[in-house]
Write a structure and sequence with these properties.
204 residues; alpha/beta; 4-stranded parallel sheet; globular
């Protein structure tokens, strides 16, 4: 059973072809490595999967539903980190997540505290919940961004170059987090231009 499937997915911007007939088959519960050099169309493909861009040709299905036609049904079940969310530097990590959660019209206020605490625990940031975001390292900010994607307990997680700019410790932490998410039954699609990084985490 596939979590994400594309067939001849294509995107053109005028005369420029940014994505040229991509076929993807992402199995459920796996870490799927989406590899390609910078500028090869990975982010454009991800934007089409999320309904942020319309395809010029081909098809995309997420959780069995056609995209972007089933946007409203699919997006609540998907967490994505395409560009890091804009955290307020003078709010704590916990306060930032509460703000993101409150912005989701589907979230219940009465369970917000538990949801935020669970997300922070998932990415190993419980100890820094009350630290201001500006005091977070780059790796911690990236883990906080992943925590933000977990607030709605998604079935599919899509991360676009999540280790960019991180030191070896930060890379290890993000890698461990993604592996743990897949082991809990979620599907993780991670794009990268670094083969060695994908080799250490991806199932396919």
């Amino acid at each position: 059973e596939l979590a994400i499937e594309t067939s001849a997915l294509t995107k053109r911007f005028g005369a420029q072809t940014a994505v040229d007939g991509v076929d993807l088959a992402v199995p459920r519960g796996a870490v799927f490595g989406f590899l390609g050099p910078n500028g090869s169309g990975k982010t454009t493909t991800i934007r089409m999967l999320l309904g942020l861009l319309s395809a010029t040709g081909g098809e995309a299905r997420v959780l069995g539903e056609p995209m972007p036609r089933s946007l409203d049904a699919v997006l609540p079940r998907v967490g994505a980190l395409v560009e890091g969310p804009a955290f307020s530097p003078f709010l704590t990590g916990e306060q930032n997540l509460r703000r993101f959660d409150a912005a989701d019209r589907h979230s219940l206020a009465r369970t917000r505290t538990a949801r935020v605490a669970t997300a922070l625990d998932r990415v190993g940031l419980s100890h820094a919940a009350r630290k201001k975001a500006h005091a977070y390292s780059l790796g911690m900010k990236q883990r906080l961004a992943i925590a933000a994607t977990l607030l709605k307990s998604p079935e599919v997680l899509i991360f676009d170059e999540p280790t960019n700019g991180l030191d070896p410790v930060g890379i290890h932490d993000i890698r461990s987090t993604m592996r743990a998410l897949a082991d809990s039954g979620r599907t993780v699609l991670v794009s990268s231009h670094i083969l060695s990084e994908i080799e250490q985490i991806a199932d396919s």
